[in-house]
Amino acid sequence: MTALSPTIDLLVENRRRRARRHVFVIAILLAIMVALFAVTLSLGQSFTPPGDVIRVLLGDDVPGAAFTVGKLRLPRSVLSVLAGLAFGLGGVTFQIMLRNPLASPDIIGITSGASAAAVFAIVVLSLSGPIVSVLAVVAGLGVALLVYALSFRDGVAGTRLILVGIGISAMLESIVGYILSSAPAWNLQEAMRWLTGSVNGAQLGQALPLLLALVTFGGLLLVRTRELEALRLGDDTAAALGVKVARTRMLVIVAAVGMIASATAVTGPVAFVAFLSGPIASRVVGRNGSLLIPAALIGAILVLGGDYVGQFLLPGRYPVGVVTGALGAPYLIYQIVRANRMGGSL
Amino acid sequence: MTIHSLTASRLSAGYSDVEILHALDLAVPPGKITAVVGANACGKSTLLRTMSRLISPSQGHVLLDGKSIHRVPSRELARTLGLLPQSPIAPEGITVADLVSRGRHPHQSLFSRWTRKDDEAVESALTATKTVELAERPVDELSGGQRQRVWIAMALAQQTDVLLLDEPTTFLDINHQVEVLDLLTDLNHARGTTVVMVLHDLNLAARYADYLVAIAEGRVHVAGAPEDVLTEENVRQVFGLESRVITDPTSGRPIMLPIGRHRMAEGQDLKENRS
Lengths: 346, 275
Prior knowledge:
The complex is a heterodimer of chains A (346) and B (275). With 346 residues, chain A is an all-alpha fold. Chain A is 74% helix and 0% strand. Chain A has a single domain (6-342), classed as ABC transporter involved in vitamin B12 uptake, BtuC. Chain A is globular, with a radius of gyration of 21 Å. The model of chain A has no long low-confidence stretch (mean pLDDT 87). The model of chain B has no long low-confidence stretch (mean pLDDT 90). In chain B, helix 4 (116-128) runs antiparallel to helix 5 and helix 5 (144-157) packs parallel to helix 6 (174-191). Chain B folds into two domains: 1-80 and 160-227, P-loop containing nucleotide triphosphate hydrolases (Rossmann fold); 92-159, no CATH class.
């Protein structure tokens, strides 16, 4: 083995080029997210000059802007970003781990589980605050476990898990509908939140628990990127490479579900963001590296952008989930057709 | 290259409640090529999967250098014992170089960076499998034979002294089957890698193996040099098939010609062959 062989230089060169492109893609996505964040803060029904926005963010009491920016727009945008990151990262994790774009948490019932638990806690048990998030996470994990157990037969096959998940998801959505329709004070905005997801009436206080969940669970996932990537080669190959498959999968499921459910407890199940982010990231990143961070950023961009479109760019006002749902549904049909033809993987 | 001993002792294993291996004993000769043959469902794949700790045995042990492989930390084991499973999955669009790099996984820890040594291992694996020119191509665009060479390259990049392969020639045209087996033999000669493979084709197994293991009903029926294992008597017992075994003029190894119920030449019949 000669250290100066042309092959090795070429390999190194190509690897570095891929790494550079990966960083570049992440930088671009980050820039888009920050730009969108800035737009949602300064441009709504009225325009607030960027200077005023910054002064509000720094805590100044700017007449005419302090309320609009500080109380209305900022919480909404912050929660959009956090929930989007959580949905994007959690979604792509599931898709990678189960090697199927249809295996996203919003298709296989995990978000509906979290949503059902949240709406039950709020409407029936009259709870509020962090306890709702905790219940949503517990319910999300419970659903994940249930789907896993119901589809287990000498190992878990992707398609069986997805079909079981779709069934469970439909059941849970009807529970959400039932609770909402039998609630004493029926409120359209609240109902929309738990049916398709919405950041209406967001409060900054809701951001902290979500941020904590994102940092803890997201950090755990990012540390496991390499194991996740190995799982894409099949369980046997991953095990042969020294990955503890069962343990990694358990850890990854808990982290992804924890993140998704925490976000769902605040914004409701924002339709298809988890499902869409991974495949979009895969398109943008190509063969240049891991999809986790790009998918998280795309999730944030989708929620921020979707909410903005729903509020200001359409006739009438729609919650973010309606917009992302309209985007995601055709893509879901495309994926199902494609999976039928060739059993696609991410 | 260190010499490792790999043995199965009183090994029982299977799936759910079905036991497939029954107290099987096997000592893999170090630094040699071992081929495992047997009829469908005899347990040859189960044996390979248990020896690479994809399946936990219900009884008995798989010992690598005298230590149970289920007790060795998985990353450490993966630096000594490599496995190419029967149907590995290539993620959509992944390039050859990227896939082969995945073989370095057990050599990297949580925060360690990709090093020169990793690049060298990948390069050497690509060169050995003649896949250098394919390095930047997506794996899903390759032919079956090329793809199998790439998977072997990934296993090579893992730089293990023992390499297990589950039917590495399945679904390949005969020319690619020979190519893959030649490649594994090169590897064995050049690096002294201990190779254990499950093969379907008895004649290729007898030609390429130093040590041939015939499995029947979850036990080692017979094992040894191909000349001693591939006999008409053993083929009858292991496969329930009448056959003639002659010597291949090229390799000097035995080859088996199956005898069916039809297409007998004049003056030939089953009884005559048996005597």
